[in-house]
Amino acid sequence: MDAHGAELVDVVESICGLPVQNPQEEVFSSADLRWTCYGTTERHDMVVLIPFERVDGFIIGECANVEAPTRFHIEKGKKRSPGSLKDYKEDEYLEQKLYWCSFGPEDYGEDGGVLPSRKYRLNTRNRAARPQSMRGCTCRFEVIRLYARPVVALIKYIERRHVNRAGFICHGPLDKDAIGPGAKKTPYLSSNIKQQTMSMIYLGIPEENVLEKHIEGIQRYCGLDEKVMVLASQDVHKLGMIIKRSTHELALDDQASIRMWVEGHKKSIFFYQDSSETDAFILGIQTEWQLQQMIRFGHQSLIAADSTFGIKRLKYPLCTLLVFDSRQHALPVAWVITRSFSKSDVTKWMKALVDRARSIEPGWKASAFMIDDAAADVDPIRDVFACPVMFSLWRIRRTWLRNVIKKCHNSEVRREIFKRLGQLVYSIFNGVNYSVAMEELLEDFVDQTTFLEYFKAHWVPKIDMWLSAMKSLPLASQEASGAIETYHLKLKTALFDDSHLGALRRVDWLVHRLTTEVYSSYWLARYADGSDSFQNVKEEYIASTSWHRALQIPDSSIEFDEKAHLFAKVYSPKDANKIYLVWNPGSEFAFCECAWSLQGNLCKHVIKVNMMCQSSGGYHPSMSLQSLRERLLDLWRRPMDDSISLDIAVAWSYQMLDQIQKYVELNGSKDISSIVNNFPVQWASKGVRTSLGVPSSRISSGKCTNDAVERRNKKRKRLSQLR
Question: Fewer beta carbons within 10 angstroms: which end of the chain, N or C?
Fold first, then answer.
């Protein structure tokens, strides 16, 4: 009889009258026993009594379940010594052990996460399963050796079915998602191997290469024989056919199709609001892996937004939230598809996203949120994320450069217009009225009618809003801007493929591309970087940003115009005869004549030249540094002289500078021991020194012991006086 599927008969409140069942078979299972409801009407368990010496036979029988073959490990246990209790209940334990199916719990351990049911580690041979076999199974039972009757064991089933938290079968022959050799047996293939194989197929890697890597992954966990090789080939081919035949159109109507997708992918959605007369359509997508990356790289770090992507070409614009990984590359951790930018709607999905992160990591908090759109409402960010808001120049720089190149055909005119646009932005720090710089720009290039028509129509009406945002918010660095731009370009390449232009107005197509190809590319890149496999993928990922490519250019390849500081020459390390000219060096609005820059991108030559300009002197500091100086000076100017407010401002300023200095020193040091050795020695008071490093529990227990001894001594003294 199934422990949870049986008809509930009368609940017994005592186990004294239960018979001790002793099946004749050497190995038996729960199906061979008669289970009883024990407890109260509100709360009861299915229990059975067997001889304690037959427990091993029961466990072996449960492992041999035809529908879900498995192993059980001891999750936790406790025991008492015989005779240690004077008063005890009938179900009191002498020994108690919790046995858990080795296909559980769900694998939250990728990239260093905490496994929720791995808090206990018993020094036994029957240990917990390896991470590759964790499938979220909740099947578990308790074996209680009774204190009153040590020869009898009470078996209490907590969950008899081999299902996950959602109630679905998660391993064995009945699992529809079973993939790989030995899927119907133990051990189960790891989710990493499955995702690795699917990612390679999505990215178009040839099937023979996919099979080779698939077999390598299997070989790490189990041996290979001819049968395993055949099954591995079949699984790769089957996965390839599934992916090839998969389609984004689950229904002809796009809205109905996206509803069906949402229903089948609830674990990958952090917020969903269907469109109606009063509500706008909002879909927030975040896989479990993306959630882990957000918690790992976003805590006490930066969150950036690539907002309003595809606002002219897609049915709904796409907003991507990014974190910066260990290589300072922009990593997408959430996608939001919506046309609504109202404060109420933005607050909804932002709050849902933060609540999801804090449900896993309660103390999760971002240090700053980086925006790229001056029209964005910063109030929801400050209310929900409770952190400073920064502004990134990458979008305005890229838009201006692309249109200058597209609408101006003379190279000299291009670089001069772009330089003047930079001076327009720099005016917010130079104390110059930007309207004067604007008028001079329009007058000096009056013959560039195509560009001026564009600039007057699209930027003159809103330039005040953009400059005000740059003035009021701290500005992000060039490295951050380059990383966000790299993600933007990769997303553009993946989505605006000519073969899919007919589907741009469907949301289900956008969701399908994001959760398959785009997601797989970043998952595989991070996996390759962390596991030292897929060296070509790893090398391509490392070199994907212009900042990293700039670091590979030696300083000796740079030559400056020492007289007028008009340009800098960058000699190619591979071909000394190839020279790139970077005009307006030292500025975020520097202009290079290389092919990558002529596409409107931030190239490695501009970044390298600007790096050297900041270190050599004689050039204006970067806008991000000027923005920081403005805020520090603002703190200094604000208080009245000789006031307590001035003291507080100075204290905050020096505390901020000290933290920045320590961070820069730590980030630039290759030997952390040299920094630790320079820390000042912190002396504690005499009474505390002896307790430093001692757990508080030991200190408190020691104090209680001393108090008890003192009370006994006082009592003895009083008794001696009475005598």
Answer: C
What confidence score (pLDDT) does residue 707 get?
62
Packed helices 288-298 and 343-360: angle between N→C axes, nearest 10 degrees? 90
CA distance to 99, 560, 606, per residue, from 587 (Å): 65, 14, 9
What span, in angstroms and rounded, lies between the C-alpha atoms of 142 and 76? Answer: 10
| CA gap 199, 525 in Å, rounded | 10
Q: DSSP code of 249?
A: -
- Cβ-based neighbours of 589, under 8 Å, separated by 6 or more: 397, 400, 418, 419, 421, 422, 425
What pLDDT was estimated at residue 127?
40
Determine contact, residues 285/320, Cβ cutoff 8 Å.
Answer: no
Q: Quick one: CA torsion of 182, 187, 188, 189, rounded to 10 degrees?
A: -80
Decide: 570 and 609 in contact? Cβ < 8 Å: yes
Q: What is the pLDDT of residue 197?
A: 80
- Write down the pLDDT at residue 177: 56
At residue 193, the pLDDT reads 74
**Helix H or strand E segment including 294:** helix 288-298
Sorted by sequence, the CB contacts under 8 Å of residue 81 that are 6+ apart come out as none
- pTM here? 0.67
Annotate 343-389 with DSSP letters as a single string: HHHHHHHHHHHHHHHHHHSTT---SEEEE--TTS--HHHHHHT-S-E
CA distances from 37 to 47, 65, 97 (A): 6, 23, 20
With contact defined as beta carbons under 8 Å apart, do 552 and 564 qualify?
no
Q: What letter represents residue 550's amino acid?
A: A
Angle at the Cα of 39 from the Cα atoms of 37 and 45, rounded to 5 degrees: 50
Which parts of the chain sit beneath pLDDT 70?
A: 1-10, 106-134, 173, 175-191, 218-228, 245, 498-502, 635-636, 638-641, 670, 672-723
Q: How many other CB atoms sit within 10 Å of the CB of residue 352?
A: 18
Q: Other C-beta atoms within 10 Å of 247: how many?
A: 9
Residue 339 to residue 412: CA distance in whole angstroms: 40
Contact partners, residue 173, CB within 8 Å, separation at least 6: 66, 67, 184
C-alpha 322/C-alpha 431 separation (Å) is: 34
C-alpha span between 270 and 293 (Å, rounded):
15
Nearest to 372 by CA among 480, 271, 454, 518: 480
Q: How far apart are the first and last CA of the chain?
A: 72
Sheet-wide strand order for 269-273: 269-273, 282-285, 330-338, 318-324, 302-309, 368-371, 389-391
Task: Tell me how far CA of residue 521 lies from CA of 38, 202, 526, 547, 632, in angstroms.
Answer: 53, 8, 9, 20, 41
Of 158, 118, 200, 196, nearest to 3 (Cα)?
Answer: 158
Coil, strand, or helix at residue 86? Answer: coil
Grouping H, G, I as helix, E, B as strand and the rest as coil, residue 567 is strand
CB 178 within 8 A of CB 81: no
The SS3 assignment for 5 reads coil
State phi, psi for 334 to the nearest 5 degrees: -165, 145
Of 177, 174, 172, nearest in space to 63 by CA: 172
Q: Which of 307, 316, 286, 453 is nearest to 389 (CA)?
A: 307
> Which residues share a beta bridge with 163?
169
The Cα 562–Cα 136 span in angstroms is 65
Q: What tokens does 502 get? A: 């007919």
